[in-house]
Amino acid sequence: MRKGDYIYIIYRKWNFEPFKYALGTDNVKYIHEMDLEGKRDDSQKQLDGKEVESIIMGCRLLRNLNYEEARQKINYVADQWINLMNIERPKLVISVTVDNYILDVIARICEKNNIKYLGLVNSPIPGYSRLTTRGKLEQGLWGPARTEIMDFYRNRRKPSHYEEIKFKVKLKKRIVNYAREKYFKIKHLFGANDYHTIVNSNWGSIDKGYLNGSINVEVKEKYFIPLQFTPECTVDYWSPVYPNNDYEQFICDLISNNKSIRFVLKEHPSYMGYRKKSFIEWINKQENCEVISVMADNYDLISKCKAVCTLTGTVGIETVMTGGTLIILGDIPYYLDGCNSSIHILGNEFHPSDEIKERVVENISKSLIRGGLKFEKKIYGWRYNENLAIDLSKSLNKYIEIYNEENKS
Question: How far apart are CA 63 and CA 21, in angstroms?
Fold first, then answer.
């Protein structure tokens, strides 16, 4: 296949407008993610058995289907994507970071065919996006300067995805999410079988509750676990837990297998009211585990606890940037790439040092680009930030210009 001049954008309803604003339509083909979905028994054999199993494990939908149905869905996406590449082989593919089986299949086939896949995801620093396919460190463009990053954490500022824990904010979100759950259930009842309809419909049926505690829980000499949003790409693809990516079970095993260690858990602010009730009930029965209020400040907890324990996430960055001890419970995240660690019973332990702090700043800076796809959910639809889209347009067009220059045939 000859490499063409087109850039393929794999879009969703919520990010079509900001993508179109950023890149326009000249030599750009927009492909709706849903148009690549279906089922097929046979495929063009671009993916082997181990890759199929890995794709199933990562996807919140496929790991809840039987193997044959999951395989058929993977085959269909693979064939559709190969057929598209046979018509006009793209020079670059842009989407959000891999967070479901559709994008996972596309990214793998692109890699096999030497086509650059560019994934975008929220940045820990507001006003930027991070470039990454599956969470690994990748080169960005025009990232924040060292002083901007150092000042950000010195002043104990919040990440770009932070949400205030205010009654009106949480009530509004609760109403919007409730309406969205009902909307997807109705869509599913009337025959819609696309990925987003099914997962949102099923997620809405989970028996959920609030995991919260007192603001006065003593943290000193205890290990702090800031719970992560799940299912979500940061666990499913960036730091998967084996054998089936069940994050809550992973946390339960961690606590029950280390009875001599005292843990303090804090709910993810964006996940308040959505944690499985069975998990909440189990946590509340554990003698070596306490739950602190979601209102507690992470920076204060970091300064008081013995260590922070996490798979990935912004709390890990906040920990190393403010002098705390960090224990990574799984794969080493991108911001710690090249940093030295020691072995702890719970995982890899990173002790505070100027060397680690400087490396983290460097890794963050070089992985970011200005602008983003930040949006606000509505009961039906989304509203994106136009200023971030303007900056993203400048960054992506500059990135493409440099990419074209480096890949001249």
Answer: 35
Quick one: tokens of 236?
């499913």
pLDDT at 1: 38
User: Model's pTM, two decimal places?
Assistant: 0.91
In a domain, 195, yes or no: no
179: in domain: no
Per the listing, tokens 């259930």 go with 185
Which residue is listed with tokens 């049926």?
205
DSSP designation for 143: P
Q: Provide φ and ψ at 208, rounded to 5°.
A: -115, 160
Q: Can you tell me which residue has the tokens 């963050």?
A: 364
Provide the residue range defining the domain that includes 392. Answer: 7-155+367-406
pLDDT attached to residue 178:
77
Number of domains comprising the chain: 2
CA distance 219 to 216: 9
CA nearest neighbour of 250 among 307, 311, 199, 205: 311
Q: What is the mean pLDDT of residues 102-122?
A: 94
Q: How far apart are CA 203 and CA 271, in angstroms?
A: 13
State yes or no: pLDDT of 164 exceeds 90: no
Taking alpha carbons only, the member of 100, 388, 92 closest to residue 231 is 100
pLDDT at 25: 85
Tokens at 265, concatenated: 């858990």
pLDDT 10s digits, 6-20: 899 999 988 888 888
Verify that 212 and 357 share a domain, yes or no.
yes
Pairing outcome for strands 347-350 and 7-11: unpaired
339 and 394 part of one domain: no
Structural domain includes residue 400: yes
Residue 22 lies in a domain: yes
Nearest-angstrom CA–CA distance, 316 and 283? 22
Alpha helices of 35-129 — where are they, by DSSP H? 49-58, 67-87, 101-112
388 and 323 share one domain: no
Domain of 316, CATH number, reads: 3.40.50
Q: Do residues 75 and 28 share a domain?
A: yes
Take residue 309 and report the two structure tokens written for it: 């324990």
Query: Measuring CA to CA, which residue among 386, 381, 369, 379 is closest to residue 118?
Result: 369
Shared domain for 236 and 123, answered yes or no, is no
